[in-house]
Structure formats: structure tokens, C-alpha cells
């Protein structure tokens, strides 16, 4: 650290706002909505850190554009509805601060 410089602490929202997203038109995650309709708990809607999974009209709706690529949805989906892949080269998230 430079002498005399001031360190301003950042909260998680400030840090996440610095990330860059290179969104692909082809989703890197596919969700089988027919399997989701039969899911007893919809854990993905509670565990996705950026809330990309939502329940609308008794259906799970997924939006991949803001995905942090953490893989949580793939881990918690015990119904086999989520097919998770890394984004194609040049696409996805670029972490800028941690």
C-alpha cells in the first residue's frame, strides 16, 4: 500500500458490481422445465447467489446472463433438471475484485 493512501472498505455488492459479463447468446446452463414442475422444493431458487432462478406461475424460470458460474444450482438440483457447462471461450464472467 502506498504511504498516505486511504483504503475504503467495499461491501459484497460493491465488489460484485465490478465484475464484467461477456454474455453468450447460447446458454451454458440448460434447465429442464418439465422436471422442475415435479420438484418438491425448488432449492435452486433459494441457493443461487444472484437469484437467477425464480418461480413464476408455478414454473421455475432461469436467466443465465448474470450467472457467477459458481455451480451451486448444479450441486443442489437433486432432480436432474440442470445441465451445467462452462461458458464457451471468451464468454462468461470476469472477476474484477476477488
The appropriate CATH architecture is: 2-Layer Sandwich
SSE run: HEEHHEEHEE
Strand content is: 15-25%
Topology, number of strands:
6
Helix content: 10-25%
**Low-pLDDT residue spans:** none
Largest sheet: 2 strands, antiparallel
- The CATH class designation is Alpha Beta
Measured distance between first and last alpha carbons:
17 Å
Q: Give the integer mean of the pLDDT values.
A: 90
Strand order in space, largest sheet: 1-6
Task: Describe, in plain words, how this protein is organized in 3D.
- This protein is of the alpha+beta class.
- The protein has a single domain, classed as Alpha-Beta Plaits (2-Layer Sandwich), CATH 3.30.70.
- Helices cover 20% and strands 20% of the residues.
- It has helices at residues 12-17, 33-37, 44-47, 72-76, and strands at 20-22, 29-31, 53-56, 59-62, 82-84, 92-94.
- The strands form three sheets. Strands 1-6 form a two-stranded antiparallel ribbon.
- The model has no long low-confidence stretch (mean pLDDT 90).
Q: What does this entry show, briefly?
A:
The protein is of the alpha+beta class and 98 residues long.
Main traits of this protein?
20% strand, 4Fe4S_Fe-S-bd, 4Fe-4S ferredoxin-type domain-containing protein, alpha+beta, 98 residues, two-stranded antiparallel ribbon, Alpha-Beta Plaits, 6 strands, two-stranded antiparallel sheet, 20% helix, iron-sulfur cluster binding, iron ion binding, 4 helices
Topology:
Layout: H1 12-17, E1 20-22, E2 29-31, H2 33-37, H3 44-47, E3 53-56, E4 59-62, H4 72-76, E5 82-84, E6 92-94
